[in-house]
Amino acid sequence: MTTHSSDPPKAPAPETRRAAAADLPPQTLEAPDIDPAASSTDEDDEGRLPELTEESTEAVAEGPLAIGHEAIEKAVRLAPTSPGVYRMLNANNDVLYVGKAKNVKKRLSSYARPNAPLPARILRMIAATVNVEIVSTTTETEALLLEANLIKQLKPRFNVQLRDDKSFPYILITGDHWAPQILKHRGAQSRPGRYFGPFASAGAVNRTITALQRAFLIRSCTDSFFESRTRPCLLYQIRRCAGPCTGEIDFPGYTELVREATDFLSGRSHAVKQLLAAEMEKASGELEFETAAVYRDRLASLSAIQSQQGINPRTVEEADVFAIHQEGGYSCVEVFFFRTGQNWGNRAYFPRAEKTFTPEEVLAAFLTQFYDDKPPPRLILLSHEIEETELLAEALCAKAGHKVEVSTPKRGEKKELVAHALTNAREALGRKLADTATQSRLLEAMAATLSLPKMPKRIEVYDNSHIQGTNAVGAMIVAGPDGFIKNQYRKFNIRSEGLTPGDDYAMMKEVLQRRFKRLLAPSEKDTARAKEDEVQQRPDLVIIDGGRGQLNAVREIFTELGVTDVALMSVAKGPDRDAGRETLFIPEREAIKLEPRDPVLYFIQRLRDEAHRFVIGSHRKLRKKDIREAGLQEIPGIGPARKRALLLHFGTLKEIERASIADLGKVPGVSAESARKIFEYFHSQPN
Questions:
Q1: Of the given ranges (311-325, 537-551, 612-626), which has the lowest mean pLDDT?
Q2: 163, 50 in Cβ contact below 8 A?
């Protein structure tokens, strides 16, 4: 029996009537689902890189060092020997630095010694200081929390500053209506219902809500729109809502859907998927194939959520993972959020910090500010060991009201989570650096570094990929003054017969011959097309991945082809494939090693990595086509029973491809070893 609100239906407002005419809820037409009582600010980009001002590299001229020492010595005489927070101020009464100490007198004394070996950053701070203010606290924990609060408020020049700090979105399943609504929520959690989060971004929330609607058919419309309906809206027609507004589903049935969604978000996803798989089997056995298809689609939607989440840990129920990467004078802190054993997204931060700060110093300062206005989880995992780990854990424990563990894992799954976050930090900073530096300036610097006759206006980078010679493919990416020219990227399916598996030289030779053949001897058709097709332009510089051997091989190819006016360079990876320690090889010149933070080296790394990304993607498309044609039966050790269990669990072969090893291991009858084999079959790394 259907249960409705006791209030009589209201006449829809004009806006509602227009939405009804379109047969979609207003929120679907205008904006993402969000609680109207919450803040609607929704900027979830990675933020901007902080500007590197002149004060980062030059001495501050606001006062001589002697005056600063005198001001600090005066403060030392009055400073307590107990915990507290101190603020250093300049002549304009602006706060230069906020610090905390277990013994304030002792800490300030370290600044007052004239000949103390202090970093240039600290010396500039002392030179600008004319006054010091001190606030005593009962404990060092209180001092740590007060320091973080003051830094966020005052934004001192010489502190590490957390920037672009916004509240995190949550998923809310409301509890103030007989037919609960699912929506995105920011701000105070005052509305009755169940909150799930935090999620790293609004995009992650929106994707999850869309998939949950497909899986559990929960409404997302407002209460006013719900009460005004006389027939189901379009979301019901496309199977994203169960239609409780017009009695398409009764109260017990809708309540069961809400319970399943709550269980899934609470971490009981395996039980929910087992239930749906059982219902699908039952419907299929009773020849109700349309009903079975609905359950199949719901299973696929749940698998899609987990595939978008990436890593879903087996042993970590609740944790925040922090990893920091520094490059080119900037820092990036990547934060991953894990709740109820699920990955609820990640966000990159770019704190403002001078180049002299170590990763450990930046991370320690970042953490105290990050949790100034957020509840910490029970576990915090870090990529670098920081000082005062126990003090930070104690402060967060006092703030949260439960035990908080802060650790830097050395092995196991926790270490893997940190490594994954570190990779994301490196890539996020790479994107920002590439966007920040002007391409023309980089090209000019590259021409000077490589002694090129002119600035290269067209750079072509080549790479190839294969697995033991199968699905061999070569690729070319193009870059110029405006950045990557993606509409001119090309892939080359290797056609040579009798090619020795893994013969990279032969593969590169075929790719370059096919690329330069038309440039060197164009037909009339090619000549006419060259005026319209920029791909027919001649490159100024060709870059390949490899050492002196690869370079000499390509030189021979160019000699055979008669290519004499194109500069050539190869990039060899550093020891242990360490980025930042690459060697550049140029014909008839000594090998070049640039400084790790040199913008030119970073630009070359970006070119090489983009070529690698493009060729790997091209290779995987070829391989996945073969996999789909062969199906699961080609995987060693996967028979009909396991194949059936996998399809019941994930719904489709595509979702099995996307699944992690951890998710595959949760399928009944699939051991850890079998899960590894399945994952490796779909994700084998090409050469």
A1: 612-626
A2: yes
